[in-house]
Amino acid sequence: MFTAERIIEQTKKWISDVVVGCNFCPFAAQVVRQEKIHYLVETSNSPEICLATLFGEINRLDNDARIETCFLIFPNSFRRFDDYLNLVSLAETLLEQNGYEGIYQLASFHPLYQFADSSENDPANYTNRSVYPMIHLLREESIDKALKHYEKPENIPGRNINFAREKGLIYMKMLRDNCF
After folding, report:
1. In Å, what is the CA distance from 100 to each residue of 18, 39, 51, 76, 86?
2. Exposed, middle or buried by CB within 10 Å (0-12, 13-18, 19+), for 71?
3. How many CB atoms are closer than 10 A to CB 80?
4. Which of 180, 147, 137 is nearest to 25 (CA)?
5. So what's the pLDDT on residue 26?
6. Do 87 and 78 contact (CB within 8 A), yes or no?
7. Which helix (H) or strand (E) holds 30?
8. φ/ψ of residue 78, rounded to 5
9. d(CA 81, CA 146)
10. Looking at residues 71-86, what average pLDDT do you find?
11. Exposed e or buried b per residue across 103-114, where buried means at least 16 C-beta atoms within 10 angstroms of its C-beta
């Protein structure tokens, strides 16, 4: 089993090599350079504890404006993609119920990520296939500011899918797997 430090380093490498390196998120490079990302490893297998930890990270963002975004990493749980999707669904419901809709947004990443209506081996899935199951917690206000400076942000997902498919399954898998 890896230490939390090792898991965070692998996650940082994935963000650097895949997310920033492939320009999947054109806004990520600046936040990485400015070191405004907080990383937390949650080792519990309990969805309740994982959700409580997520709300701890929301509290961190509420109280520390220097942190732009958080990655909550689950190295020991949610290995099945469906279990992970259930966690994300619960988290989104709780955000809404607790008055955080429009304040924070969740992005989902998982080693077995699969877009609806795609095949398991579609290289496009690697735009969201991470080294560990994780939830990315973002400030909506920051997203809105970034989108104002980006022409046609609605084209980002399609561009990412095309990039991954052009590179191919072997390349995308190798790129992600080299982060371990």
Report:
1. 29, 20, 14, 27, 19
2. buried
3. 12
4. 147
5. 87
6. yes
7. helix 28-33
8. 60, 40
9. 30
10. 97
11. ebbbebbbbebb
When comparing pLDDT for 142 and 165, which is higher?
165
The DSSP bridge partners found for residue 109 are 134
| Token pair 């190295």: residue | 75
Domain ranges of the chain: 4-177
Query: How far is the first Cα of the chain from the last one, in angstroms, to the nearest whole number?
Result: 13
Please name the amino acid found at residue 32. V
**pLDDT band at 1; cut points 50, 70, 90:** low
Q: What is the pLDDT of residues 33-59, one digit of tens each?
A: 999 999 999 999 999 999 999 999 999
Residue listed under structure tokens 């797997």: 177
| Distance of alpha carbon 96 from alpha carbon 81, whole angstroms | 23
Q: Each residue of 97-134: pLDDT tens digit?
A: 999 999 999 999 999 999 999 999 999 999 999 999 99
Q: What is the DSSP string of 96-125?
A: HHTT-BTTEEEEEE-TT---TT--TT-GGG
| pLDDT (0 to 100) of residue 151 | 85
Give yes or no for a contact between 54 and 135, defined as CB atoms under 8 angstroms apart: yes
- Cβ burial of 38 (10 Å; 0-12, 13-18, 19+) is middle
